[in-house]
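User: I'm designing a mutation panel for GGDEF domain-containing protein and want to avoid disrupting the core. Could you give me a predicted structure to guide residue selection? Please restate the sequence first so the numbering is unambiguous.

Assistant: Good idea. Sequence first, for numbering, then the predicted structure tokens:
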Amino acid sequence: MASSEYVFATAALREGRLMRAFTTFIGWACLGLFVLGVVSQLHPLGPHGVVARIVQGAVTVSALIVSALWLRSPWPTYGRAVGFVVWADCSVVIAAATTSTVEARLSTTLYLGLVGIFAAFILGWRITLMHCGFGFATIAAITAWAVMVDGHSVFGLYVYYAPALAWVVVVPLGGMVLIDIGRRAIRRTARSAHFDPLTGLRNRRGMHSAVNLLIKRAEAPVTVAVAVCDMDGFKLLNDTAGHSVGDAALNAMAQRLRSVADPDDVCARIGGDELVLVSILSVRADIADFIQRLTPLTRVDFDGLALAASVGVAADTTATPHFSIDDLIGHADAAMYSVKRSGGASCAIYDPTTASTTGATAGRRRHPSRPV
């Protein structure tokens, strides 16, 4: 299962149209690792011996393959992104192990810092901590081997392992803290900009953003159904019982709206006591099932009061020229006001062929009591 950090980062890159730029950057970075491997084969501090050259050569070739995947493939899944971190960590460690001096080994581990930044930005705390732990263990092992086997002094190697630890461990962890703080701040700002503080439903801006994303993900033309729900007698309730009771009643209606919504539906409050439900239908015939789901909205029991609501419905396909969700809401709104004029506590569907509404009065028949 993808982490929340991966979902957030992926959504941010997609929203900013930066996914291709990001994958291109990673692809070229892997290509740089390939070039480094080629140069290392020819460098005096590079691998010595047939086995070391073969192992390091295999890592170099794999870097070229991974580079091509980043440059030509779509955005990776969470599992593939984690797999990339595992490959990069192992490749850098193998490249470091095959060099001929401890100084070269510790210097090579610096490339783990780039992997750590990728993990911090894309994959979140858990993977970043595991990566940093792996990097720390690698640097400590190289240093300990040099001290105990090759006779180097801990102080003499300080100028190599200290920068390596700072870049491989401290920088990714510090970056993770800053990224997490920024991510939380952005989420709070985004929520306040896209959600209604009273009901927790999306506001108009949040509704448009969510619906446009659903339509974009569908890729092919789909039928969009919109229901506009407006409480009957809400002003009278506010005037007689007070705004706190009115707010509580509105929250009760919002909760009922959530209860009739499917997981992919969009619930919103677009003003006053006007609530909206937007659903993507697989076929136009599903509109009957959509209306059936809306029936519980026409009557909600709240704190001893029988709250009534008028509901208007409109549907259209995104293949329609100049399709607009605002036009669809306007049609549903007209159908809702038609219900109000006929007494409320019912549901009606907008008829685009006659520019009028056809009522579904079953809700009123089931609940003959007068609306609030």
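For picking mutation sites, this is relevant: The first helix runs from residue 4 to 15. The longest strand covers residues 305-317.
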